[in-house]
Design a protein that fits this description.
single chain; 89 residues; mainly alpha
């Protein structure tokens, strides 16, 4: 694969080489690709977490272990009020 860099990107690559951090342009580009992979990986992990949470919710619903939204909000409010009251004591 051949890649043509804009003059600005060529200058960026050259500055990285001149700084001594990298030996070659390929080293700079590989570092950029690795950084891209690191940035995308957390999103993939988060997607898997959300899929797992959705599956747990669906399974709970199948067992009849869910409550309607109004009931859930009331339970949350009650828990918050209890925690707030106990922290003031």
């Amino acid at each position: 694969m051949q890649i043509t860099l804009s003059p600005e990107l060529e200058q960026l690559v050259q500055r990285q080489i001149d700084s001594g951090k990298y030996q070659t342009a390929i080293d700079v580009i590989l570092a950029g690709v690795q950084l891209l992979e690191q940035q995308e990986d957390p999103y993939q992990g988060r997607l898997q977490d959300l899929q797992q949470d959705a599956l747990l919710g669906w399974e709970a619903a199948q067992r009849g272990e869910v409550v309607d939204g109004a009931t859930a909000m009331q339970q949350i409010r009650t828990n918050l009020h209890s925690r707030h009251a106990s922290s003031e004591s």
